Amino acid sequence: MEVLLRDVSKVFPGGTVAVDTVSLHVRPGELVVLLGPSGCGKTTLLRMVAGLELPTAGQVTLDGRPARTVAYSGRDVAMVFQELALYRHMSVAENIGFPLRWAGFDDAARHEKVLEVASALGIGELLGRRPSQLSGGQRQRVAMGRALVRNPRLFLMDEPLSDLDTQLRTELRTEIVDLVKDLGATCVYVTHDQTEALTMADRVAILRRGVLQDLGKPTDVYTRPATLYVAGFLGQPRMNLIEATVVVSLDQHVALRMGAQELRLPWLHMQARMLARYHGERIAVGFRPEALTPVPPDTTDNVLHGRVLYLEHHGHESLAFLDVGATAVTIDETGYGDPGTNRGRSRGVRGMLARLSGRGGRPAAASEEKAVERAGAGRHERARAELTIRLAPYPSIGVGHPVAVAVDVTRLHFFDDAGMRIDLARR
Ligand SMILES: Nc1ncnc2c1ncn2[C@@H]1O[C@H](COP(=O)(O)OP(=O)(O)OP(=O)(O)O)[C@@H](O)[C@H]1O
């Protein structure tokens, strides 16, 4: 089934703009994940596709017909939500088979279909149990079974795995993809978990404050994010985002000045000439930790020098957070839980994100005040970290240690003052 959203907005009474002029085309058989932090409008968007909510403006159509008509009229659309609504007084088999009763299947046909779906989901042994006798993961499978049994052409799933532990989530997300693909159904899947989005989706749609920020294959949105917001949102550890002034030396190179240090892109470098038109301007430069390699201190050419502010040991690797004397560009609402990690320091490319969303946003001055507050002792020291690098587990260096890192300038990301990717056209 084809899902088409044309300039869809939803404003709730009271004035909350939950969804802001979103256009999205989900092709038949495609699995599109709506990703974004809490409150960005994912559920509202999904509910409009389900016909449960009417848009304030724009249109939502399913195979060319208004969503509400399709969802109400047939059995083509199935929904799975986080809050499972299993019938407690019914067995697993009755729960799964329930939609078939409505569709007029006789007992034998229903039984056969339930068995088929239950064994596909690995719950064939549990058909006689009540929901209260099941684990969370098993209950989730039953809910999935009830949605699957109707052979729907469109699945709408809203954080169906969010109550489960990590291992079950990992298992079930693969199963969901397989099941949906086997059925040839279209699927719109809502989550705030970027791993889920990047592993499951054919394409990911990233929302912030109701505005669609990026739409593309997982590899595209990760390797070439369309906006500064997406650059900061996707990836763990997050992408380093540093403010730089562009200085052109004609026919030689384009320098990116970051505090007292600079990186140089040779003039023949593909991106150098594209950056040349920003001569004298400030832009945001992004580089993921994987583009940075520790090198001996006397190495020249595109090396940044810094000092270790703190280290984090993750077992398989350690992360070092360096102060390189430059200004970090930070993004609020990245969905990260730790308030100490660079957040609030949005001096630099000022109010970039407020403008990006076209409204709201914390004024830069307030953010600067917060940054000052955080520059004190304790965990708020972390707000000073400007460059995250990956190291082998438990390295011999410690806090305060000088470190030189070579920057792979072919893996830089550039964003303009409005937070838009400078070379978006090449994606
Ligand atoms: N019925 C409603 N009336 C008023 N405001 C609403 C209503 N439903 C949602 N909102 C608001 O609309 C915005 C988007 O909410 P929505 O539930 O779509 O976000 P979400 O991205 O799904 O969040 P979460 O991940 O926390 O579920 C929020 O600011 C929310 O408070």
From TrEMBL:
Gene3D superfamilies assigned: 2.40.50.100, P-loop containing nucleotide triphosphate hydrolases
Annotated ABC transporter domain residues: 3-234
- Annotated keywords: ATP-binding, Nucleotide-binding, Transport
Establish whether keyword Endoplasmic reticulum is in the entry: no
Q: Which InterPro entries match?
A: AAA+_ATPase (IPR003593), ABC_transporter-like_ATP-bd (IPR003439), ABC_transporter-like_CS (IPR017871), ABC_transpr_MalK/UgpC-like (IPR047641), Mo/tungstate-bd_C_term_dom (IPR008995), OB_MalK-like (IPR040582), P-loop_NTPase (IPR027417)
Q: Which PANTHER family match?
A: MALTODEXTRIN IMPORT ATP-BINDING PROTEIN MSMX, OSMOPROTECTIVE COMPOUNDS UPTAKE ATP-BINDING PROTEIN GGTA
Residues crossing the lipid bilayer are none
Q: What superkingdom does the record give? A: Bacteria
- Its recorded name reads Sugar ABC transporter ATP-binding protein
**Gene Ontology MF term list:** ABC-type transporter activity; ATP binding; ATP hydrolysis activity
